[in-house]
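Ticket #4471: structure output looks truncated?

Reporter: J.K.
Steps to reproduce: submitted the chain below (497 residues) through the standard prediction queue, then opened the result file.
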Amino acid sequence: MSKKRIIKHVLRTLTFMVLISCITIGMVAFKADTALSNPTGTINHSKMIVGYFPEWGIYSAHSFYKVSDIPWDKVTHINYAFARITQGKIDVDDTWAAVEKPFEGDKSSTPIKGNFGQLIKYKRMYPNVKTMISVGGWTRSLRFSDIASTEMSRSVFADSCVAFIKKYQFDGIDIDWEYPVRGGAAENQYRPEDKHNFTLLLKKLREKLNTAGVKDGRHYLLSIAATAGYLTIPNIEPELFQDSLDHINLMSYDYNGTWDHTTNHLAPLYMNPKDPSFSNKKLKCNVNWSVKEYLRQKVPSVKLNVGIPYFSRGWRNVTGANGGLFDKANGSPKGLWDNTSKGGTGTNPFYYIKSVLEVPGSDYKKYWDSYAKVPYLWNASKKIMYTYDDEASVLAKCDYILENNLGGVMLWELTGDYPIKGCTLTKVIYDKFKTACKPTPKPTSKPTPKPTPKPTLKPSHSPLPEALVSVSASSSTTPATGESLKIPLSWEAFWKD
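Returned output as attached by the reporter:
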């Protein structure tokens, strides 16, 4: 054998070794990619399940609920509550909880720790779940009126939101302004112009998110937590701003509470004709009225998510003349989630209600309002009444969502489910939607006809098995990934003896 032929034979062998390496790497990459894009429990229905994760959940009052406790396989969106507004820009609220607290697996070199780092970690395992940063809330809506007031302030805030979600790898922004014009915390800034400025703020956010999305080759989400109250809906413009939003999370709870002196339901699905409230309150303080009002204002049904509370409200010193419901009351008991320095509202997580108040021997009797489609608890000896949602009322709301072709549900909030760190209510919702509806199928395209393959050249002295020799000399596709392996055409000379 001549020296030239020996060199060519060696080069042929090296070429095949490169091919084997590429195929092996491709197969490994395919397996890794498959593990991420098809996680266990991928959502297989078309409804939204938006769960709020409270930043403070990691502390003792909420049983040290972590991002890892979220039922990732049963939700479609996770809204992180909350970011604040500082000097006209979005800002981290609790820095320790959000980006500094080390969790299992974190190292000193981990760039983003805390809850945000955990969201990034788990999103890699559940890439179909969207994570969003929620700005505001009841205690963090102080400056919304200011940042919405001018074109410049809106632009500065929107730019900061885009930078924030890119830095911390969120899929979008959720605005929780409670509330424009009036109705929120006493210390909030208010303006009559808030009504239209809110619309302009959402429009500016949509513009900035779209611009960023074009550059990044993706769509950034924008949603709001929207009022469900008949006194506050007139202070916003759903018909005008809905086009800027991907979806709207209705805060369809707290229709009644300790601020009332007559017991009633926290989140009734429908009106109870026996409700003694004055006309407007009786007719409009229920989920059905709120949904119909947004639909009347031209909001597409598929953009509306019904809010479901994972907590209770309650009253004490109840007269009991009507068996606990629609009775006169004076004050509220202190609940497990109440800020004791500010008095009681009867706020308990669902896991406490189910494991303590609903059990036999608790002295609480459970009732079902067949009109409103919600339960309540009555303790005749202690004169205490609690209102909340349970498995049956959640199912009734899921049926309502399906019947009215609504987008899905919003859950406030995940740490309250039963048992502690459990997902009883979330599973009820997931299972209902899974059974009732499937994802909208993607349109099928006609298969592209495959060109007639050219005969494969085989070397006369191939050191490889026959199966691998069939790889085309000019270009091929790995069996693992479908990615083309490009081989310089000049190498074809090595196939010729």
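Triage note (M.O.): checked the attachment and the full token line is present. The longest helix spans residues 3-37.
Status: closed, working as intended.
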